[in-house]
């Protein structure tokens, strides 16, 4: 089946969807994005993703071209038109097409480009990897200094993912000044006893929407949350480790740089948080 994608207000077959070669998203990675997961045909944590989208746009002074209602309607339309039960909706907004290449931002009134498409992932919430856990390796974090803005400059995370694969691992944890920042496309956590430790929010990491929800549920379940950075050595000595993201939800990590974490099997805290996250986020799904 050919996918139907959204381009600037139109729904078109994917092989007819196009954006200008002068689009700043293409030439300058001048754009931001969001990934919203779909479970049972409904959007997970949608409001949170919209809040972050608007923040990313505003930090880069890109006009927000649509209202929250328009974004929601387009997400729902795409899910319906592509018959998505489980999967993702990808949304990208760029500074648009000024008609030429120029380092200066285009004149006011240049229309941002909005592109959206779906990816079908049947059984997304039952990923077999959640039962065995991921292995990760550490790499130096060589990204820019505003990782809190969800830009489409994903070359370095992509290189880090390839390095992880080449080293036989599922993902990479990026390290700066000896301390873990985050995974290539997820936030990183360790568990010690009843304490969940994850890096504090700053310009150094993406402010994960799944992170915010999981930390809220953890606190509600009387777990202690410590927002601070940690080293790879500390993570290797932890009882458990895990990551969170919109596409992986809560995914256990069982080995770091070849060292087994805890028992080397999925631990009770990550397993429980995954259950709670899926259960609670489905209640607010739209
Ligand atoms: N990535 N950190 C980074 C660097 C990310 O790219 C992501 C999300 C996260 C987790 O954020 P959230 O919980 O809001 O998904 C953290 C998405 C899923 C992606 O690029 O596909």
Could you explain how this protein is built, in words?
The structure is a single chain. Helix 6 (209-220) crosses helix 8. The protein has eight helices and 15 strands. It is an alpha+beta fold. The longest helix is centred in the C-terminal third of the chain and has 16 residues, at 268-283. The strands form two sheets. Strands 7, 8, 9, 10, 11, 12, 13, 14 and 15 form a nine-stranded mixed β-sheet that branches. The protein has a six-stranded antiparallel β-sheet with strand order 2-1-6-5-3-4. The chain folds into two domains: 4-126, D-amino Acid Aminotransferase, Chain A, domain 1 (2-Layer Sandwich), CATH 3.30.470; 129-283, D-amino Acid Aminotransferase, Chain A, domain 2. Bound molecules: N-(5'-phosphopyridoxyl)-D-alanine (PDD). N-(5'-phosphopyridoxyl)-D-alanine binds at residues 35, 182, 185-187, 206, 208-211, 244-247.
Q: What is the strand and helix layout of this fold?
A:
Blueprint: E1 4-7, E2 10-13, H1 24-28, E3 31-39, E4 42-43, H2 46-59, H3 68-81, E5 87-94, E6 113-120, H4 129-132, E7 134-140, H5 155-166, E8 171-176, E9 179-183, E10 187-192, E11 195-198, H6 209-220, E12 224-227, H7 232-236, E13 240-245, E14 249-256, E15 259-260, H8 268-283
Parallel strand pairs: 7-8, 7-14, 11-12
Antiparallel strand pairs: 1-2, 1-6, 3-4, 3-5, 5-6, 8-9, 10-11, 10-13, 13-14, 14-15
Helix pairs in contact: 6-8
N-(5'-phosphopyridoxyl)-D-alanine (PDD) binds at residues 35, 182, 185-187, 206, 208-211, 244-247.
């Amino acid at each position: 089946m050919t996918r139907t994608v959204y381009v600037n207000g139109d729904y078109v077959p994917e092989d007819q969807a196009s954006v200008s070669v002068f689009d700043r998203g293409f030439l300058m990675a001048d754009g931001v994005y969001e990934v919203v997961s779909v479970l049972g045909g409904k959007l997970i944590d949608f409001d949170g993703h919209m809040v972050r989208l608007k923040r990313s746009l505003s930090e880069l002074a890109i006009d927000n071209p649509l209202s929250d209602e328009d974004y929601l309607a387009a997400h729902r339309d795409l899910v319906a038109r592509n018959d998505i039960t489980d999967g993702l909706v990808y949304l990208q907004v760029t500074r648009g097409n000024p008609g030429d290449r120029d380092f200066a931002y285009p004149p006011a009134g240049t229309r941002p480009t909005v592109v959206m498409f779906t990816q079908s992932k049947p059984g997304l919430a039952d990923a077999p990897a959640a039962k065995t856990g991921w292995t990760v390796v550490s790499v130096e974090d060589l990204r820019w200094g505003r990782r809190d803005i969800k830009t489409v400059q994903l070359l370095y995370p992509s290189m880090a993912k390839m390095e992880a694969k080449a080293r036989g691992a599922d993902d990479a944890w990026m390290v700066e000044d000896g301390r873990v920042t985050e995974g290539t496309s997820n936030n990183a956590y360790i568990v010690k006893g009843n304490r969940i430790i994850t890096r504090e929010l700053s310009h150094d990491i993406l402010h994960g929407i799944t992170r915010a929800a999981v930390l809220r549920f953890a606190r509600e379940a009387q777990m202690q949350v410590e927002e601070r950075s940690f080293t790879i050595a500390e993570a290797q000595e932890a009882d458990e480790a895990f990551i969170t993201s919109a596409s992986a939800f809560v995914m256990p990590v069982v080995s770091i740089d070849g060292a087994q974490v805890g028992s080397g099997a999925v631990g009770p805290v990550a397993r429980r948080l995954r259950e709670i996250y899926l259960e609670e986020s489905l209640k607010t799904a739209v």
